[in-house]
Structures are given as structure tokens and as C-alpha cells.
Amino acid sequence: MLRLRYNEPLSRHTSFRIGGPAYCWVEPEGPKGILEAIDFVSAENKKFSVIGNGTNLLVKDEGFDGVIICIAKGFEKIQKEGEETIKTGAGLSAAKLVKYAFDAGFGGCEFLTGIPGNVGGAIFMNAGARNPEAPAKFEEIKDILLDVEVLDLKSREIKTLNRKDIDFKYRYSGLDGKIILGAGFKLEKNRKENIQDKIKAFNRKREWLTKISFPNAGSVFKNPEPGKSAGMLIESCGLKGKRIGDAGISEVHANVIVNLGKASAKDVFGLIDLAKTSVKQKFGIGLELELKIL
Ligand SMILES: Cc1cc2nc3c(=O)[nH]c(=O)nc-3n(C[C@H](O)[C@H](O)[C@H](O)COP(=O)(O)OP(=O)(O)OC[C@H]3O[C@@H](n4cnc5c(N)ncnc54)[C@H](O)[C@@H]3O)c2cc1C
After folding, report:
1. Which residues contact 236 (CB under 8 A, 6 or more apart)?
2. Residues lining ligand 1, Cβ inside 6 A
3. What CATH number matches the domain at 4-70, 3.40.50.300, 3.30.565.10, 3.30.43.10, 3.40.50.150?
4. pTM reported for the whole predicted model
5. Which of 110, 149, 171, 173 is catalytic?
6. Closest to 184 in 3D by CA, of 164, 205, 207
7. What does the pLDDT average to over 83-90?
């Protein structure tokens, strides 16, 4: 039985703490529940969108006139599948994947340390981080994926997509329109001390993030090209600390917008426009959003 929550404030479900209500919110407990939710979407003649942990999302002030399907609690399974392979549900947090892999003596996913999303959101976004020991090297979730289980909404069947058939790019998976249910990961046996050292190194690299005490959604823009960071470009335009309403460009890192109290999505869009226009004028570079807008 679907448990529907009408008029659900989306600010409660995003790390930004911004956004109006959804017409309806549902957290299916399995693939069957998703299909029931999709039937409900058709019956109500509404659109739908998928959410994981809401850490890469800016929801508009008017909210979402459709059904939000949250892939979380019903999809948290994790298990070993033979040598060095782990299968997880899409609703498992990235943190729990790192912890499980550590306990099992598997290395390779330490770069997910501190990324606050779920496995489904991390795959959709091809989440990643720079390797602290080799700063030129990015580690991304695509590098450790074997396959991704998705729900095909046309055939209503569960399909397993081989990682090679997915068009991953920087912060992009090409999985739009699909609902990610789970994934298989190929990790490597390693000594726990080595895994622990790597986790610590990633944590140290992310220390600056802990200095941001206001709600945010991580990086707002993609880095435009290797060696050119969106944060540095925005900072060079003198925009650190710039405020519109209750939204501000972080004093700590210029590629993060913070909600200083009661920021509206309109305030955040104002800062996004300002940063884009300023960087275009000063450097001739067009910044592209990493943040997803709902
Ligand atoms: C403090 C902070 C630090 C961050 N650091 C990093 C970082 O170092 N590296 C990095 O890459 N990102 C980082 N992020 C961004 C974010 O955490 C990641 O992109 C994360 O992987 C998003 O996962 P989520 O579950 O929160 O996805 P959501 O924000 O819920 O959704 C993001 C997108 O994925 C889609 N989606 C989510 N789940 C599914 C699913 N099951 N099936 C289909 N589509 C789905 C949504 O529709 C949406 O388009 C950070 C964010 C914050 C707030």
C-alpha cells in the first residue's frame, strides 16, 4: 500500500533547506511500490521526479506540481557477491557503503567519504572527489561500478545495465528518465590500515567543508575545465560573501551558496545569475550548473 503525503514541504528533504511543497511525496518500499507510484502519477495526470538524499538539489519556491518518488529506506540492502564484489540498493547512503567496504576489507570507494548522498544519487551524478595524494586524479563512482539496476518504466521490467553501456562523464551519467534501484561494485581486497589511511586522507582534504556551518548543496557549478576551478573564478570576481536576501556565496569556498536563514530559491537563483554573468564578463567562461533544479 502506497503511503502518500500530499503537499509535502520539500525544504524538509533537501540539504539546502529551501523549496516549496510537492503535490505528493511517496517513499516506495521496493520496485513494486515504484510501479504503483507510477500508476498513481498517470491516474492523477501529473509528472514525477526522483529524489535520493536531496543533497544536490535546489527546489523552486513554488514547489513541484507532481509526485516525488524518494528512493531511500526501501532500497538499503547491501551484500557481498563473491570475491571483491558488493551489491547495494540505491537508497543506501554513500557513507554506509564506505563503512561496509572497510569492514569487509575492500578498498576503492574511500573517495565517497563525506559525500552526503545515497548510492542512487551518487550514480546519477557520477559523484567523485580529487585524490588527495594525486591531486590531478579524480576518482568517480563510474570507476568502481560493475553494473546498475534500473526500472524500465516502459516495459515495467528491472534491467541490469553494464557499466560500459552507460555514458558517464564528469558529474553526468546519462541515466535521465530511469529509476536506479541498485548497483554492483567491483572493489579490491586491501589491508584495513591502508583503507583507513585513505579514508583519513579524504577526510583531511574535505576539512574546509566542515567550516561551512550553513545549509548548502555542495558545489553549485561544475569546474569548467581541468585546472580551472569554478570557485577560484567566482572568487576572482570578488563575490565571496556576496548576499542576496538570505542566500550568500560562502566565505569559505566561492563555489558553495549557503542558506543563511530563510533564503528563498529566488535568492539563490539571483546569486547563480550574478556568478555566471561576472565570470563570463571577466574570463569569457560560461559556468554550467552542477546543482539539479527541481
Ligand atoms: C556538503 C556537501 C558536500 C558534497 N560533496 C560532494 C563531492 O565531494 N563530490 C560530489 O560528487 N558531490 C558532492 N556533493 C553533492 C551531492 O552530495 C552528490 O551529488 C550526491 O551524490 C547526490 O546524492 P543524493 O542522494 O543526495 O541525490 P539527490 O540530490 O537526491 O538527487 C540528485 C540527482 O540524482 C537523481 N537521483 C537521485 N536518486 C536517484 C535514483 N535512485 N534514480 C534515478 N535518479 C536519481 C535526482 O533526480 C537528481 O537529479 C556534496 C553535497 C553537499 C551538501
Report:
1. 282, 283
2. 15, 49-57, 71, 90, 115-118, 120-122, 124-125, 127-129, 179-180, 209, 216-218, 292
3. 3.30.43.10
4. 0.97
5. 171
6. 164
7. 94
